């Protein structure tokens, strides 16, 4: 079984974090993955200024920026007026004290949320997942962003409806997704 | 009624990542881990700086009361130390600082300005800091156990217990 190989050379990321050391840490991980040095910003205003005239391929941001929440910034980014850039994948990093902001980030269009401290394995696997698993992008007026339904922890209709379904070889949707991600990260066909 | 539209955009990230070449997962991770490890010294310094910032706030405390704006700063600094210490494997310090975050967050939400529980955490933080006298695992558990009593005393819930669940994909 082959390993995932990812060519991140030339990928331009925008990295937003209010803490200088954390920015340096994530940036060095990205360079270790073969990515170019990311564009660095500290605030939502920095990001808006950059994104108004430039494109990025990946956005990595804290759940709470000094001047706005990550959720607000993502909502701004996902507006139809932003045209192609609105589809840019967004990874939200959440520190311990920011854990209450997870739902807001997800409900405003984050692709994925990663809890700090971020490990190289965790970050690489999530970037791999974002790059390889195509998720529909939903525009529903009050929500614009990647389809959130894969995140549902409840079994969909017809699966695990009965108490003993767990013993009948049926698998829940999250488990199927987890297997898919595992297969993708190992480079095999799911 | 608003129409729901579904797109299947192929992102530039997906296109670039699918090109031939690039790095195998293990090599990419090993490179990144080396980069992180190379920053350990800087990380220790950053932890020290953040601790000093907390100490500075506590030195200026009057009548053992910490106003909300300063409590927020303590919470912010402690949160940074949680991330830094967990990144570099200082787990006892990370647990101590999570406890400080829980207490500071609880005090803020309750509108209390008590300085004593913060000061106790700051002393424990020093005990568990990188480079300080190494405590044995049982001693560490005693320290952390005492800190846990503070949260119980105030009847605060840890932030992690109030947190939104992070969707698990792996």
Largest sheet of chain A: 5 strands, parallel
Order of helices and strands of chain B: EHEHHHHHHH
Q: Average pLDDT value of chain A?
A: 83
Percent in helix of chain A: 25-40%
Task: Report the sheet with the most strands of chain B, covering strand number, pairing sense and barrel closure.
Answer: none
Termini separation of chain B: 37 Å
- The number of helical runs of chain A is 6
Largest interface: A-B, 79 and 60 residues
| Chain oligomer state | heterodimer
CATH superfamily of the largest domain in chain A: Response regulator
The averaged pLDDT of chain B comes out at 92
Overall geometry of chain B comes to: extended
Topology overview:
The complex is a heterodimer of chains A (190) and B (170).
Chain A: E1 5-6, E2 13-16, H1 20-32, E3 39-41, H2 44-51, E4 58-62, H3 70-77, E5 90-94, H4 102-107, E6 112-115, H5 120-132, E7 137-139, E8 144-146, H6 173-185
Parallel strand pairs in A: 2-3, 2-4, 4-5, 5-6
Antiparallel strand pairs in A: 7-8
Chain B: E1 5-7, H1 12-17, E2 23-24, H2 25-38, H3 40-59, H4 68-87, H5 91-110, H6 116-127, H7 137-154, H8 159-162
Q: How would you describe this protein?
A:
Chain A is of the alpha/beta class. Chain A has 2 domains: 13-147, Rossmann fold, CATH 3.40.50; 152-190, no CATH class. Helices cover 32% and strands 15% of the residues of chain A. Chain A is built from 6 helices and 8 strands, in the order ββαβαβαβαβαββα. Chain A has helices at residues 20-32, 44-51, 70-77, 102-107, 120-132, 173-185, and strands at 5-6, 13-16, 39-41, 58-62, 90-94, 112-115, 137-139, 144-146. In chain A, the strands form 2 sheets. Chain A has a 5-stranded parallel β-sheet with strand order 3-2-4-5-6, sandwiched between helices. In chain A, helix 1 (20-32) links the parallel strand 2 and strand 3 (39-41). The longest helix of chain A has 13 residues, at 20-32. Helices cover 67% and strands 3% of the residues of chain B. Chain B is built from 8 helices and 2 strands. In chain B, helix 3 packs antiparallel against helix 6 and helix 4 (68-87) runs antiparallel to helix 5 (91-110). Chain B has a domain at 42-158: Four Helix Bundle (Hemerythrin (Met), subunit A), CATH 1.20.120.160. Chain B is mainly α and 170 residues long. Chains A and B meet through strand 1, helix 1, helix 4, strand 6 and helix 5 of A and strand 1, helix 1, strand 2, helix 2 and helix 3 of B.
């Amino acid at each position: 079984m082959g390993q995932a190989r990812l060519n991140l050379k030339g990928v331009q990321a925008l990295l937003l974090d209010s803490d200088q050391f954390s920015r340096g840490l994530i940036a060095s991980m990205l360079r270790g993955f073969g990515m170019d040095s990311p564009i660095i910003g500290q605030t939502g205003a920095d990001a808006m200024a950059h994104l108004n005239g430039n494109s990025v391929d990946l956005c990595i941001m804290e759940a709470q920026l000094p001047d706005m929440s990550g959720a607000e910034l993502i909502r701004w980014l996902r507006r139809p007026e932003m045209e192609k850039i609105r589809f840019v994948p967004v990874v939200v990093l959440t520190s311990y004290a920011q854990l209450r902001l997870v739902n807001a980030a997800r409900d405003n269009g984050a692709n994925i949320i990663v809890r700090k401290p971020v490990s190289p394995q965790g970050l690489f696997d999530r970037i791999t997942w974002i790059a390889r698993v195509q998720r529909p992008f939903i525009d529903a007026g009050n929500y614009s962003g990647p389809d959130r339904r894969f995140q549902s922890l409840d079994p969909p209709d017809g699966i695990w409806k009965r108490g003993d379904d767990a013993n009948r070889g049926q698998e829940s949707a999250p488990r199927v997704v987890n297997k898919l991600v595992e297969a993708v990260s190992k480079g095999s066909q799911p | 009624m608003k129409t729901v539209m579904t797109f299947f955009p192929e992102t530039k990230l997906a296109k670039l990542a699918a090109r031939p070449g690039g790095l195998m997962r293990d090599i990419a991770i090993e490179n990144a881990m080396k980069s992180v490890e190379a920053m350990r010294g800087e990380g220790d310094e950053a932890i020290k700086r953040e601790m000093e910032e907390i100490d500075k706030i506590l030195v200026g405390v009057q009548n053992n009361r910490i106003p909300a704006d300063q409590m927020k700063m303590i919470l912010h600094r402690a949160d940074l130390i949680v991330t830094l210490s967990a990144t570099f494997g200082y787990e006892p310090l990370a647990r101590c600082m999570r406890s400080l975050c829980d207490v500071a967050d609880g005090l803020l939400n309750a509108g209390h300005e008590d300085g004593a529980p913060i000061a106790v955490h700051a002393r424990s933080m020093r005990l568990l800091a990188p480079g300080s006298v190494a405590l044995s695992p049982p001693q560490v558990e005693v320290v952390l156990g005492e800190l846990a009593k503070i949260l119980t005393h105030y009847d605060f819930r840890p932030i992690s217990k109030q947190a939104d669940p992070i969707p698990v994909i792996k």
